Every structure is written in structure tokens, then in C-alpha cells.
From TrEMBL, chain A:
<dbReference type="Pfam" id="PF00097">
    <property type="entry name" value="zf-C3HC4"/>
</dbReference>
<feature type="region of interest" description="Disordered">
    <location>
        <begin position="489"/>
        <end position="515"/>
    </location>
</feature>
<feature type="domain" description="RING-type">
    <location>
        <begin position="423"/>
        <end position="462"/>
    </location>
</feature>
<feature type="region of interest" description="Disordered">
    <location>
        <begin position="118"/>
        <end position="148"/>
    </location>
</feature>
<feature type="domain" description="SPX">
    <location>
        <begin position="1"/>
        <end position="376"/>
    </location>
</feature>
<keyword id="KW-0479">Metal-binding</keyword>
<feature type="compositionally biased region" description="Basic and acidic residues">
    <location>
        <begin position="489"/>
        <end position="500"/>
    </location>
</feature>
<dbReference type="InterPro" id="IPR004331">
    <property type="entry name" value="SPX_dom"/>
</dbReference>
<dbReference type="GO" id="GO:0008270">
    <property type="term" value="F:zinc ion binding"/>
</dbReference>
TrEMBL record, chain B:
<dbReference type="InterPro" id="IPR023313">
    <property type="entry name" value="UBQ-conjugating_AS"/>
</dbReference>
<protein>
    <submittedName>
        <fullName>Ubiquitin-conjugating enzyme/RWD-like protein</fullName>
    </submittedName>
</protein>
<keyword id="KW-0547">Nucleotide-binding</keyword>
<dbReference type="Pfam" id="PF00179">
    <property type="entry name" value="UQ_con"/>
</dbReference>
<keyword id="KW-0067">ATP-binding</keyword>
<feature type="active site" description="Glycyl thioester intermediate">
    <location>
        <position position="72"/>
    </location>
</feature>
<keyword id="KW-0808">Transferase</keyword>
<keyword id="KW-0833">Ubl conjugation pathway</keyword>
<comment type="similarity">
    <text>Belongs to the ubiquitin-conjugating enzyme family.</text>
</comment>
């Protein structure tokens, strides 16, 4: 139920080194409490603030709800009503980002110098103008709450002596009060009194964002180091596997150097393992229906199924899984690498959730809005708000995905996959390999059949070149490669080809090859 | 099919693995949308050197498919390539539903209808789809 509990539980399933780098959700939560306290001390408890800010966000200044301002203090408000349209005040929450230092602050504008009055007047509800002494009322309507809110803020501001005597100033004076490093949250860092613009820095909010920002920054760095480590591991692993999954000596080489090449190789087993691995599609689906990254639960389950299949190779093949000890070590490392990807996936998910939830909680508890690029405003001064996008770095792209790709690029090609060398017609190993003049490769058997049927077009590109193909079209390099890397498959295909050709010949002579000998 | 295409199913008969029961979903945006069309597919002995035989079992009002469900599609005839597979063949049939070609007709009356008054012909196609290919 509570996210902080769920979060802790997820983290507990991860290795300590990951756990230690996770976002400190609880600590951020505590900081939110401090922000709430700070805002309360400003008289801006969430209901007040949300009411004030709810009036915000309108696109043009003309539509901005105003707080009517009067030249005298609390009395005689009617006297100035006529001037209300030319005066307004508004409050904006913004994040100022200055060289990795985040300074959240509230900016209050007030045009025309005056003392504030509680009779808030919103343009969209001009009726409030007629309402005398809204403040005293205890209505529960939004309208009165908003005005209460305005009132509270103004009272508070007045208490802070920010607007004191301001009716004398015509938007020209600039006050400098308090110093930058002051720890008292209610201290005023700087007051710009240009058109009576007032900036209230929120120090505990700053602490909150700073912690979050630093956490995300260091996460980014940490992820990069994990990526680098993983790549190194993979490269080592790929050369280890390459050592144990050697191809058989080619026919030509067999006579000369066969004694130099160790007879033992775990090529077959590695091929089975990688084939299971590709079929398992543990982290990503490649099917058309649900292409893309899988859920954590799905990955976990598929990884287990894969591990089960690898364990069963021994019984499936009826022989020892590996002949070489290094293979066992490498397999262990391979499984660990995959488990690591799963951990990273969980880790990134947990951190992204923590970030999202803490920002949501922040918005909810303080009523300070979540700032994002969409919170645009016509007011040039608050363009600073758009800085937030840059301020809170986006969670890095799925690291698990990058790591999965690294396995696909570095590790799997160590053992050539038969699909990459199969004839597109019979879908078996393309042995013997014939390369047509258009560079497309098929097995000799299928092309002979095509020639006999009078089919002249390349099955891939329809170039008319099947008939002219002959012995000179054999791809000898490929043939040798296939004999080395697919010794069993090429021997078997060769046998099948010969059998099929013989049967065909018999049939052409009018003899059913399946019948027993007609002579004896 | 290990990785079936969206909107297409094909399952072999238990007693004859060369014979497949096929369903194709009418493509969105075509008069055949929301229809589920049944087809049969047979792989001849010579496959993949020779094309599979494919036929609609569900009635369909389409200029390139006749009353008997026979399909006029070049890759099923002279443009067959041994590199084509069941999957690619069925995708082509599905695509034919999106792009009727009345200039190369099999059902001449339907083709004439399509050429003379396409909107009305599509209306009939929709009616037939609803009537014969209404799913379930």
C-alpha cells in the first residue's frame, strides 16, 4: 500500500551495491515535511497556496485573477474600485537553476504600489467586487476560500513587512534584505521591487530539490559505470566462450594441423544454450503483437524457465553438459550477467517510481505545482519555470535494454546461429551454398529443383539467373565455414541432398524409390 | 505459425498437416473491417517450389475473389517465389482486402460494380461482411 514500504521491499531483493545507490525516498519525504513547515510559516498552508495558485496559469495577463489593491489599508476599499483593472497581483512558483544549484522560490507581482486588501477580485468573478468583507465569512465555497487564502497571504506578507509603506513607492524601489545563506526560511533573500516584484526563496524546498537532483545525477553516473563494467565483463566472457566453443577443424586443415587444435569443444552445447536463450526472449519480445520490453515479473519468470532449460540439456542430450571446465565457469558468468540485467531493470524501475511518487507527494503536500514544460506562461519573467525540465534530469534510457543489446551484439555472435546460414527455400542449412549472380544464397538442392522446373527467377529478387548457375557459383569460403561451424548439420544436409537426388533420379526413370527392389 | 501476424491465424489439421484452417480479419478502413473470414490453405507436394492453394470459405463481395472463394493474386500463380511462406502469403491475401483491383477481376460482375459505382459496391461489401463474416 505505502510506496515507501514497497520501495524498500524491491530494494531488498537487489544486491547491496545497487541498494546503496538508490534514491533515498524516506529522506526526501522528511524534507517535504520541512517544506510544508516552511510554507506554513509563510502563512501558505496547502489550501491557501492551492487557492492562490489555482488562480494562476491563465494564459494572458488580462485574464489573470487579481487581488485588488487599495491605496489605504483595510478601510475604504470602495474608493479605489474604479482603478482595480489597472492593478493586479499574482504569485508564481518557480525553480531557478543556477549551475546545479536549484533555488525554488515564490515570485509575487504586484502592479501599482499599494497595501493589499483582502477583497480579492478575480476577473472571471467580478461579482466579488460587490461582496463586502469576505474575509469574515465562513462560507465553504471555493470563492470564499480563495479569498481567505489571498487574505492570509497578504496578512502574512504584511507581517513580514514586505509591503509596509509601499503605497508611497511607485514601483521603483528595490529592497535588499537578509543575506543569501540565511538559514531562517522566512528571511527574505532578495526583494526586487520593480513593479513590485517580490521573490521569496524557499530554503527547505531547495534542500529537497537539491537532494533529488544530486541523487538523480549520481544515479546517472552510477549507471554509466555499471554499463562500462558490464561491457568489460561481456568482452571477457565472449572470449572465454569463444575458447570453449571452437569450430571443428575444416577438412583441408584436418590433415595438417589437427593435432594443434584441441579436440574438445563445447560448441554444440553453447549453440543449444544460445538457441534456448534467443527463443526465451527473456527481456524483450520480438513478436509483432507485443514487441518491446517485458515487465519485470515476465522477465523474472522467463529467466527462470531459461535456467531450467539449460539445466535440462544434460538429460535432453544424454551426455555431460560441458566437456570443458572453462565452459561451466563461463556459463555461470553468463547467467550472472542476465541476473544483473534483471536487477538493473528492477533498480531503474524502483528509482523512476520513487522519483515520480516523491514529486507527486511534494505537489500534493505543499500544493506547490509540479513544474514541467507545459506550465508555460505569458509572463517572460517566469520562463525560469521551464528550466525545471533541465533541472530534474530525466531518468536515463532503459539501461537493461542497452545491456540486453550488448549481449546480443557481443556474446551471441560468438556461436554462429544456423538461421543466419539457412536456405530461404528449404529453411535448412544452405549446404552446399550456391551464390547467384545477384549475391543471394541458396542450397544447391533447391536451385537444382528450380532449374528442373524451369523456374529462372531468383526467389528473393526475381533476377533471371537461376538457369545460368553452375559449379562456379559454389561459395567455397561459405562452404568451409559451414563445415567448421555446423559440422553435423552440413553432413546431415549433404546426406539428405544425396538421398533426395537419388530418389529423384529413380523417379525420372519410372521407378518408385520407396518400393523394394524389383529385381530380387 | 510461431509469430503470427496480427489478425491472421492458421492451424494445421490433425490428420493432414498440409491442410490448414485459416482466419483473416478484415483490415481496418476497408469495407471488410470487423469481419472474420475463414479460408483453407493446402500445401501441395511440390511446396515450396509450387505455391500453396488458398481459397475463401466465407462468402465475400470482392472483385478479385469469386463465388467459389478462389483468389486472383499473382503470387499464388505465376509470380510465386519459393522464398514466400504461409505467413507472407496470408499477409498478401489480407492486403488484397484493403486494395481491391477491379482491373484484374475474377468476379466480373463485382468488378464491374466496383468500377461503375465504387461507393455502392463498398456498401454491398460491407453488407456481405456483416452478414457472412460477422465473427463468432
Amino acid at each position: 500500500m505505502h510506496f515507501s514500504k514497497t520501495y524498500t521491499q524491491i530494494l531488498l531483493t537487489l544486491p547491496p551495491e545497487l541498494r546503496d545507490n538508490a534514491i533515498q525516498y524516506r529522506q526526501l519525504k522528511k524534507l517535504i515535511n520541512k517544506v510544508v513547515l516552511e510554507l506554513n510559516s509563510l502563512g501558505l498552508d496547502p489550501s491557501v497556496l492551492s487557492a492562490l495558485l489555482a488562480a494562476e496559469g491563465s494564459v494572458s495577463i488580462a485574464e489573470t485573477p487579481r487581488i485588488s489593491i487599495h491605496s489605504d489599508s483595510t478601510e475604504g476599499k470602495n474608493a479605489e474600485d474604479g482603478q482595480a483593472p489597472s492593478s493586479y497581483s499574482k504569485i508564481v512558483y518557480e525553480l531557478h537553476n543556477d549551475q546545479d544549484r536549484i533555488e525554488p522560490r515564490l515570485r509575487v507581482w504586484k502592479q501599482r504600489s499599494a497595501t493589499f486588501d483582502s477583497s480579492a477580485e478575480a476577473v472571471e468573478s467580478p461579482s466579488s467586487e460587490e461582496e463586502p468583507e469576505v474575509v469574515g465569512q465562513t462560507q465553504n465555497s471555493d470563492q470564499s476560500r480563495r479569498e481567505d487564502a489571498h487574505h492570509d497571504l497578504l496578512q502574512q506578507l504584511r507581517r513580514m513587512k514586505l509591503f509596509q509603506d509601499s503605497d508611497a513607492v511607485q514601483g521603483a524601489a528595490i529592497w535588499e534584505e537578509a543575506d543569501h545563506t540565511s538559514s531562517n526560511p522566512t528571511d527574505v533573500e532578495e526583494i526586487e521591487f520593480e513593479d513590485q516584484e517580490l521573490v521569496i526563496p524557499l530554503l527547505s524546498d531547495s534542500a529537497f530539490y537539491q537532494l533529488l537532483y544530486d541523487a538523480i545525477q549520481s544515479l546517472e553516473t552510477y549507471m554509466n559505470s555499471i554499463h562500462a563494467d558490464f561491457t568489460t565483463t561481456l568482452h571477457r566472457l565472449s572470449s572465454d566462450i569463444a575458447q570453449t566453443a571452437r569450430p571443428s577443424p575444416s577438412e583441408q586443415a584436418a590433415g595438417v594441423v589437427s593435432h594443434l587444435i584441441p579436440a574438445k569443444s563445447d560448441l554444440d552445447t553453447w549453440r543449444i544454450i544460445f538457441s534456448h536463450y534467443i527463443d526465451a526472449e527473456i527481456f524483450e519480445s520480438v513478436s509483432e503483437r507485443n514487441r518491446g520490453e517485458r515487465s519485470i515479473e515476465d522477465c523474472e519468470q522467463r529467466l527462470q524457465i531459461f535456467a531450467g532449460k539449460v539445466a535440462a540439456i544434460h538429460t535432453d542430450t544424454g551426455r555431460k553438459t560441458f566437456r570443458l571446465k572453462q565452459s561451466r565457469v563461463a556459463l555461470d558468468a553468463f547467467m550472472k550477467a542476465n541476473l544483473m540485467i534483471l536487477y538493473i531493470k528492477k533498480f531503474q524501475f524502483a528509482n523512476a517510481e520513487a522519483t515520480r511518487k516523491i514529486l507527486k507527494k511534494h505537489a500534493k503536500r505543499t500544493a506547490l505545482p509540479l513544474l514541467d514544460s507545459s506550465s508555460s506562461s505569458s509572463y517572460p519573467a517566469i520562463d525560469a519555470a521551464s528550466l525545471t525540465v533541465a533541472t530534474i534530469p530525466k531518468p536515463s534510457t532503459s539501461m537493461s535494454r542497452i545491456l540486453v543489446q550488448a549481449i546480443g551484439e557481443t556474446l551471441l555472435p560468438v556461436v554462429p546461429h544456423i538461421d543466419d546460414y539457412s536456405c530461404l527455400i528449404c529453411t535448412n542449412l544452405a549446404f552446399k551454398p550456391i551464390r547467384l549472380s545477384c549475391r543471394h544464397l541458396f542450397c544447391v538442392r533447391c536451385l537444382v529443383k528450380m532449374q528442373k522446373r524451369g523456374q529462372d527467377e531468383c526467389p528473393m529478387c526475381r533476377m533471371r539467373n537461376v538457369h545460368i548457375a553452375n559449379r562456379s557459383n559454389v561459395d567455397w569460403t561459405m562452404l568451409q565455414f559451414m563445415q567448421q561451424w555446423f559440422p553435423k548439420e552440413s553432413r546431415q544436409k549433404q546426406k539428405e541432398n544425396e538421398k533426395e537426388a537419388a530418389d529423384e533420379e529413380l523417379r525420372e526413370m519410372g521407378i518408385d524409390p520407396n518400393q523394394s527392389c524389383v529385381v530380387c | 505459425m510461431s509469430d503470427p501476424a496480427p489478425g491472421i491465424t492458421a492451424s494445421p489439421h490433425d490428420d493432414n498437416l498440409r491442410y490448414f484452417d485459416v482466419t483473416i480479419q478484415g483490415p481496418d478502413g476497408s469495407p471488410f473491417a470487423n469481419g472474420i473470414f475463414k479460408l483453407e490453405l493446402f500445401l501441395p507436394e511440390e511446396y515450396p517450389m509450387a505455391p500453396p492453394k488458398v481459397r475463401f470459405l466465407t462468402k465475400i463481395y470482392h472483385p478479385n475473389i469469386d463465388k467459389l472463394g478462389r483468389i486472383c493474386l499473382d503470387i499464388l500463380k505465376d509470380k510465386w517465389s519459393p522464398a514466400l511462406q504461409i505467413r507472407t502469403v496470408l499477409l498478401s491475401v489480407q492486403a488484397l482486402l484493403s486494395a481491391p483491383n477491379p482491373d484484374d477481376p475474377l468476379a466480373t460482375d463485382v468488378a464491374k460494380h466496383y468500377k461503375e459505382n465504387e461507393l455502392d459496391a463498398q456498401r454491398v461489401s460491407r453488407e456481405w461482411t456483416e452478414k457472412w463474416a460477422g465473427g463468432e
